[in-house]
Amino acid sequence: VFQGRILARRSVGQETRYEVEVQTPYRRRFPLVAREYVWVPNTCGCPPLREGGTYLLMARRHVNHEHTLNRILLQDDGYARPWTPREERLVREAARHC
């Protein structure tokens, strides 16, 4: 779970790749750097992420069976909400219990 700003969007094959500036990591099971690529397994724009927008994203790490692909994946029905102070408060409160 992290707060990030969408810098760019690009369709690559049947997927969409977002370049994201990681602003605030809240809960990490894998390391994040200041800029990451977040992949969505479709090109329909679901979830709708706008370039320049700041979002609270809940993504997972995806490693293929051959261990040749290691990326951050945001599923179609993944959690991606526009960032608001309320969202930040909810995440911080939840982090205390998890």
From TrEMBL:
Main location as per UniProt: secreted
NTR domain span: 1-98
This protein's UniProt keywords: Disulfide bond, Secreted
GO cellular component: extracellular region
Compartments reported by the entry: Secreted
Domain of life: Eukaryota
Pfam families linked to this entry: NTR
Descriptive protein name: ATL5 protein
